[in-house]
Amino acid sequence: MSLHKMSELSGRRILLGVTGGIAAYKSAELIRGLRKAGAEVRVVMTEAAAQFITPMTLQALSGWPVRQNLFDREHEAAMGHIELARWADLVLVAPATADFLARMAAGMADDLLTALCLAAETRICVAPAMNQGMWRNPATEANVTVLRQRGIEPWGPAEGDQACGETGPGRMLEPEEMIKRVVRLFSGAAMNGVRVLLTAGPTREPIDPVRYLTNRSSGKMGYALAGAFRDQGAQVVMISGPVHLSSPQGVDVIRVETALEMAAAVMDRVEGFDIFVACAAVADYRPLEAASHKIKKEAESLQIGMTRNPDILAGVAALPKPPFCVGFAAETQHPEEYAEQKRISKCVDMIAANLVGAEEGGFEKDENSLTVLWEGGRVVLPMSEKSCLAEALVEQIAKQYGKTDTAQDS
Predict the structure, then answer these.
(1) Is residue 26 part of a domain?
(2) Neighbours of 279 (CB within 10 A)
(3) How far is CA 182 from CA 82, 126, 310, in A?
(4) What is the C-alpha to C-alpha distance for residues 398 and 380, in angstroms, rounded to an integer?
(5) Residue 42 sits in which domain range?
(6) Are both 221 and 367 inside the same structural domain?
(7) Is residue 1 included in any domain, yes or no?
(8) Which residues are catalytic?
């Protein structure tokens, strides 16, 4: 693991929670890295965590006694768990098991770590670590959604080989990656003050009052991007098609249904924004005319005349003073080739290409991969959870936007 500069986290107080998963052994490396970066680290372990790594090990690495018991006479006589919650600049739970996430979501406080998290008024981040089946279980998904809504930020999980022998999402992020995130959190966000307008989700094009044309977009990538931009300090407005997702905290969400509604919402608001990201899967065509009543099943065949929808991304890029424009190209074959053609023809600054319809990633999936293209450059972002992928993409956008912004000022 690379060494971090001593000044990066100097004076920062980090409360590290360790729960009972096999990834608990990585907590030792995480403590070492945080302290090398200048942070003061104190550790709270659950009873189950001590089955995987000893309190003495973490005490030796942190330099402070490890706290384990809620009913500790020495500390709790003075409400020590409240004092510790107020002490921390950041509460980081790594690893965070499925059981711990469930208890947090339920608002439980039956052990020291959950009580601290419930009492904490500072930022809380959790690094999920569990079997891939447990991570994908609807119960865990619901618990994570609840935590996000309360401002508790999941870091990861990553995807790969697991201790049980299976492969998939559920691995705890590596300590080096978490240290980078902690440093980024305290060092000042990369996009402070930048205004971002973003589209997400599908559109629905009505055929009659009960039927419509749409696509398989779930909106997960766009919503993850909105959260990632927000976390980097941007002021985010998201125009969303119909999805079954909760609005990210701190993001202004405008809900629309059709492509025409989305185009109007974008063009009405885009002036004054610094970055525009067209992540929505907008229908290319719509019925010429929607029937006013339900079409009855009478004829053997049905013909529906179609007309083309406006190209929102091209329209924004063609403005006299366009924002920095980022597009998406969802393709079933040759994604990079088609994406580059789209980038050039629409005169956009960056484009992210992804393969849909494959066994991994794409529409309706929790994971994806992207090839990001810009004039004279490209980067491949490998298959990962969409939340992690969004963070990596925002990092690339920030770099390229920073270059163009500097060029305009010079």
Answers:
(1) yes
(2) 25
(3) 23, 12, 42
(4) 16
(5) 13-186
(6) yes
(7) no
(8) 164
